[in-house]
Amino acid sequence: MQPHPALPILHLDEHIVAIDKPAGLLVHPSALDAHEERSALKLLRDQLGQRLWPLHRLDKATSGVLVFARHADAARQWGQAFESGAVRKRYLALVRGWPPAAGEIDHPLARDPELPSTGQPMLASLTRYERLACIEWPFSVDGRHASSRYALMAVEPLSGRRHQIRRHFKQIAHPLVGDTTHGKGAHNRAVAQWLGVQRLWLHAERIELTGGEGLPLVIEAAAGEEWRPLLQAA
Q1: pTM for this one?
Q2: Residues 141, 31 share a domain
Q3: 13, 20, 59, 73: which is the annotated catalytic residue?
Q4: What is the C-alpha to C-alpha distance for residues 29 and 53, in angstroms, rounded to an integer?
Q5: Is residue 59 flagged as an active site residue?
Q6: Distances in Å between the alpha carbon of 196 and those of 148, 171, 177, 204, 231?
Q7: What is the CATH number of the domain that holds 100?
Q8: Of the given ranges (47-56, 63-72, 110-119), which has the lowest mean pLDDT?
Q9: Most buried pick, 43, 167, 168, 212, via CB within 10 A?
């Protein structure tokens, strides 16, 4: 196995460390991806030479800001803040179609997206969004239309359900591009060919939390080069 390059550190203090997680890297070992030996937790632990505690999750295919605690007390303090919704998060997403310019998706979600929703407790879930750009590319996915429409979105999940952004945008019929579970394969393939990049188009660009002295701490991860054509349309 080739050595993994050092993970980019966005913030480091005595309590927490934040990295810019690349797409395709697990946060921690998972039975759902048992063959994958690499994870951000293992790599960063080795990089810093200390034990770490993940404070939240990003899907393997999602890139962006990922925060770990550096000691058990910080894990308890910040873990409660993430659980209670006291931490603000902002994502970039590319979705199919042109949603409204701004809005909220207030739709309860089953606890485990890997299982059928029927019979599971449905948990209150709220996502706020703003459309940053409407994009129309000159290729056809649906034979009724000569071109295909997509939108660049700024997204703020106000609750922390698993796959929340992906499931909510599927709910309003604007699934994320590159989402192999909740999206549309034909659009995923067409956009990958057009842009020359195959990925889930979801990036955690900003986290805002209260620092140890009560001051707001903002941690940001710039979107990768593959996002440039989309950001230029904004």
Answers
A1: 0.93
A2: no
A3: 59
A4: 13
A5: yes
A6: 16, 28, 14, 21, 16
A7: 3.30.2350.10
A8: 110-119
A9: 168
